[in-house]
Structure formats: C-alpha cells, structure tokens
Specification:
The complex is a heterodimer.
Chain A (H helix, E strand, L loop, with lengths): L1 H5 L9 H19 L4 H22 L19 H27 L6 H18 L3 H19 L6 H32 L4 H10 L4 H18 L8 H8 L2 H26 L13 H20 L4 H21 L6 H31 L10 H4 L2 H4 L1 H15 L5 H15 L5 H27 L15 H19 L2 H11 L4
Chain B lengths: L5 H24 L6 H4 L18 H25 L1 H28 L8
Chain lengths: ~500, ~120
C-alpha cells in the first residue's frame, strides 16, 4: 500500500490543482505574517487560484490526465468531472479575491486573513466537489464552511455581520450534524463509507432499507442546506446581507458549486438504482417539490426586496431551484438524458458563477468608502452619471435573468431542455420554472430601470463609484466569460458533456 | 453471549445502589445545623469575592484554541510514532507535512500577536 500511495511523479499531476491551492494558502499566511503590506495578498491569492483553475481546465479536457496514486482513489475522484468543478470553483474564488482586493482596501477593512480564508475555503470546496467517500465529504464540507463562517462575520463591530455570521454558523453546524448523522445511518445500513460501495450495496438490495432511506434523506437535507434550497434557506438573506460583499460573492458561487457537485456525485454513484431514483418512492419525490418551492419562493421574495444585496440573495435561492430541476432529471433511466442533465447543471453553475460575480462586482464598483451602494435608491440614476460603471451590472442582471445571448440564458436552456427530454413527469416543474423566472425578470429589470430611468431623491447621499484596478479586472474577466459562453457555448458544453460521461 | 456481560451489569447495579444508598443514608441520619457561613457558596475555604458571572478576557479563548490545535497534533503523533517503521518514508514525509503546516500556523499566530498576553 505504501509504495502505491506515493506512486510515480506523473500520477500526482491530477492532484496539482488541489495541492497548488493548499500550498498557496500557506504561502499567503507566511507572507501575511512577515510583511506589513496587504496589497500584494489580493494579487497573490488570485494568481494562485487562477493558475490552479487554468490547470484544472486543461486537465478537464482529459489531456495528460493520468490515474492518481491509488491511495487517493477511495477518497477523492480527480477525473475530468472533478477538474471541471475545480476550474469553476477556482474561477469563482479567484474573482472573489480580486473583488476583495478592491473592496477591502476601499472600505478600510484590509486585514490579511481574508485572502487566506478565501483560498483555504476554496480548497475545502475542491475537496468536497471531488469527494467519493462519506468521510472526505464531511472533511471537505467543514474545511469549506469554517472559512466561510468567519468571512461572513468578517466586519467586526457590525451587528449585522455578527448576526449573519452567527445565524449561518449555528444553522450550518446543525446541518452538518444532520449530514453526519445521515452518513452514520447510511454506513449502518450498507456497511460502506465509500460512495461506490454504498451504490453497489443499494443496487444489490443488501442494505437495510429503513435505515438507508432515513440516512439518505438526512444526507440530502444537509447538502441542500448548503445550496440554500427551500425549506433550508432561512439563513441565506441575513448571511448574504451581513457579509462583506466579496464574501457574499464567494458564498453564492463557490459554496453552491461545491454543494451541487457533491449532490450530483452522491445521487449518481449511490442512489441511481430504479427504486431510489423513482419519482414516487425515492429522492426525486423529495427534491422535485423542493425545487418547485425554491423557484417560487426565491423569485417572489426577491421581487419584494428594497435592498439589492438581499434581492441577489433571494435570486441565488431561485437559481438553486433551477439547478435542482437539473438534479431531479437524474431520475430518468435514459443514460443520454442523464448525461445531458449533468452537463447542463455543470454549464449552469459555471455560467451562474461568472454572472453572479458580475452582478456583485458591479454593486461593489458603484459604491465607495463614503457610501456603499446597497439599495435600489442608491442605484438611482447611477447609470446616467457613470455609464461605464453601470454597464457590467446591466450585463450581469441580464445573464441572471436568462436573456439571450448571455451565459445565463443557455444555462437555463440546457437544464430545462434536459428535464423536458426526460419525459412528461417533469413538465410541471419546467412550467413552474419558466413562470417563476418571469417574476425574476421584474426584479432584475428593476435594477436597470433604477440605473437609467430614476433620479435620486433630492438631498439624498449619492454613491460614487470606486476606483480599483482589481474590481475592473474582475468585471472585465467575468463580463468576457458571460458573453463568450453565451455566444460560443460549444467548447464549454462539450467539455461538460465529455466530463459528465466519465463521472470521475 | 449476553451472560459474559453479567458481571459488568452486576457491578453497575452494585455501584448505583451504593452511591444512591450512601447519599440517602447521610441525608436521613445526619444532623443539619445551618449557619450563615455555611449558606454562602463554597470557594475552597476562602471567603467568596464578588459575583461569579464576570466577563473573561477573550485572550483565554485564544490560548485555549491554540492549545487544542497542538493537543490534536500530539494525538496524531502518538499512533504515528508507534507504527513509524511500517509507514516508512511515506509516513515520515506525511508527518512532516502535517507538522510543517502546523508550524506555519504557529508562526502566523505568533506574528499576529496571539501569544502576547499584554499588548
């Protein structure tokens, strides 16, 4: 075992994105401890994350992808699919680090640990997305979450940040406990902690059915908490609003991606047999109503917000609902449909990552130290005063709304068309999705209306856009990908399809 | 198979009966003579001084957290040391990576002033 654990040098290549991020995190700690300047930390952390992301993107095509050392295999899958998730996570985390470089400096909150937290959390997210064992799922989940909890409460002395952080921490640890309990029950029912072994035992019908069903429900509840699906969404608006905006960006894209990645893996490896994937007797019976409720509640609640950050929080709940439709589609027995659904979810999460970074980044860019832009009123007329700063916001909300030719439109298209292709059973879910995204159009367009057609109240304090090269770079990068994925989606969807067929 | 546990069960019963019995016996047989001195909270013989719900400095928690980190390190070091030879070079490298990562955290905490009691 020992010899195979170390393996040849080449076998470590698939693990490089993970190792790079981990080593980068420690390097950040050392640099932060030994230097007084914070400026280079944003650069260092985003360079580390983008390098790891680029490497993962190359590996995701399957080029140079060799099997990892055999000791790694039971715990982590580092095939094409994991590399795709790694690339998405590193992209979201790197862009958040760039936004932090601008935001924290502008608002005099610059303390070095924020970047280390982003990098270590991203590492946890990558482990979670690659995990193939109940133990590594839990370790990845906690590594990711502990960093995010402290990022939410980062603004010391702000009661809102403390409230959001504490709420997220208490509910999050409770959800983790539920997930752990579920894992224990599944282990009790099947005698395996590795997902492949559990899947085998479930297919063979050796598992204790009652324990297994309870365990599965608890495991799925723990994971759907992290993607903030209704009814486990309560913490989301408060945590998103209380957190500093770069942390909100990180949570909304990275945590969601990692949680959906592991949700897909658990369902595909463990619960894809006929009994547990049936709409009547299995997990789709739980996830389908959740998806509908998440889409409806997310969209209607978002429409009622006066605070743009809270609106984006509810909009992220709504997006979790759309993605859940793709997850529910995995009930289908048709391999073709399932691969389309998986690749649709993968494409959606990448598209959602860049669109959401664009929206949050623009919100950051439109405020400065004197006044941060948070409500619709703060945006009034900003588009006419500063057209260049408002333009990315328009692109961001159009993509989140699903307006062609943006990435967001194609994400919805792929997910919903997979659900329709699976047969008539999910037609109602697609109809709910399409109708509720019409509600979504109202609150997304409201941003544009305020930006360009309203004027600020006389005498009200006016938010002035900040000047930061970091934020501009983040906006340019994410804006580029929003358009690129919308106009020429072929390379991305092909990549997702080829990764989805491997399940590694 | 269950009968192998009988002595343990018996022990449990005896211990419970003894513990409950002694306390019941003292409360029934003992004389109670309350004085004002006896009514105050017991503080190791010295007179109590102020309320017990004082606020502790956050420094204690910081020290406690650091202690836990290195306590856990020790927990991992013991089993490693006992099968050190079987693990070979891989185990050595792995353990040094683990200790190294903790050393970096210690360096960080030190430089950030977590080890200074008075600031």
């Amino acid at each position: 075992m020992t010899a195979s654990l170390t393996g040849s040098m080449a076998s470590w290549v698939p693990l490089m994105p993970l190792l790079l991020v981990a080593i980068g995190g420690f390097a950040l700690l050392v640099v932060d401890a030994l230097s007084d300047e914070h400026a280079e930390l944003a650069t260092l952390s985003s360079v580390v994350l983008f390098c790891a992301g680029a490497l993962a993107a190359v590996l995701a095509t399957g080029k140079g992808l060799v099997p990892p050392p055999s000791g790694v295999a039971p715990y982590l899958a580092v095939g094409q699919m994991s590399q795709f998730w790694n690339a998405t996570i590193c992209c979201g985390a790197g862009l958040s680090a760039l936004l932090a470089g601008g935001y924290l400096h502008e608002h005099a909150l610059e303390r070095g640990e924020f970047y280390a937290l982003i990098v270590f959390s991203a590492f946890g997210a990558m482990v979670l997305a690659a995990a193939t064992d109940l133990l590594s799922i839990f370790i990845g989940l906690e590594t990711m979450s502990l960093g995010v909890y402290s990022m939410v409460a980062y603004r010391r002395g702000s009661p809102r940040a403390a409230e959001g952080g504490l709420k997220y921490f208490l509910l999050g640890s409770f959800a983790a406990a539920v997930l752990l309990f579920g894992s224990a029950l599944i282990y009790g029912a099947t005698g395996h902690t590795d997902l492949a072994g559990i899947g085998q035992s479930v297919r063979d019908g050796h598992a204790n059915l009652r324990l297994l069903i309870l365990g599965m429900l608890m495991l799925l509840s723990g994971l759907t908490f992290k993607v903030s699906a209704v009814p486990f969404h309560m913490w989301t608006p408060d945590a998103y609003e209380g957190a500093v905006t770069p942390a909100t960006t990180f949570m909304s894209v990275v945590v969601k991606t990692a949680a959906f990645a592991v949700l897909l893996r658990v369902i595909l490896t463990c619960f894809s047999d006929e009994l547990s994937a049936s709409l009547r007797t299995g997990w789709p019976g739980m996830l389908a109503p959740m998806a509908a409720a998440t889409m409806i509640l997310g969209n209607f609640a978002a429409a009622r917000q006066a605070n743009v950050k809270r609106m984006l929080a509810y909009s992220s709940i709504a997006h979790a609902g759309y993605i859940l439709v793709g997850v529910v589609t995995l009930y289908s027995g048709d391999e073709q449909v399932r691969q389309t659904a998986v690749s649709g979810v993968m494409f959606y999460l990448l598209a959602y990552t860049v669109s959401n970074v664009l929206a949050f980044g623009s919100l950051i860019a439109l405020g400065s130290y004197a006044k941060e832009a948070v409500s619709y009123e703060d945006l009034a007329g900003a588009g006419r005063r500063h057209p260049l700063a408002a333009l990315p916001f328009v692109l961001g909300v159009l993509s989140l709304m699903g307006f062609p030719p943006t990435a967001g439109f194609l994400g919805k298209w792929y997910v919903f068309s997979a659900a329709i292709a699976s047969g008539n059973d999910l037609l109602w879910l697609v109809i709910v999705g399409v109708l509720s995204s019409v509600v979504g159009a109202y609150y997304y367009l409201r941003v544009i209306v305020y930006l360009f057609m309203k004027s600020p109240e006389p005498g009200a304090a006016i938010a002035v856009p900040m000047r930061s090269g970091y934020v501009v770079l983040a906006l340019v990068l994410s804006g580029y990908f929003v358009l690129k994925m919308g106009v020429t989606p072929a390379p991305y969807i092909d990549l997702a399809l080829s990764a989805a067929s491997k399940l590694g | 198979m269950l009968s192998t546990y009988l002595p343990a069960l018996l022990m449990l019963v005896v211990a419970t009966v003894f513990a409950v019995g002694i306390f019941t016996l003292t409360s029934v047989l003992g004389t109670k003579h309350m004085t004002p001195e006896k009514a105050i909270p017991y503080e190791s013989g010295s007179e109590s001084d102020g309320a017990n719900q004082i606020r502790l400095s956050v420094k204690f928690y910081l020290t406690a957290i650091l202690f836990v980190v290195f306590d856990i390190e020790a927990v991992f070091l013991y089993p490693w040391a006992s099968i050190f030879r079987q693990l070979g070079w891989f185990g050595l490298v792995e353990m040094f990576a683990f200790i190294g990562s903790l050393a970096i955290t210690l360096l960080y905490a030190w430089k950030k002033g977590a080890l200074e009691w008075e600031k």
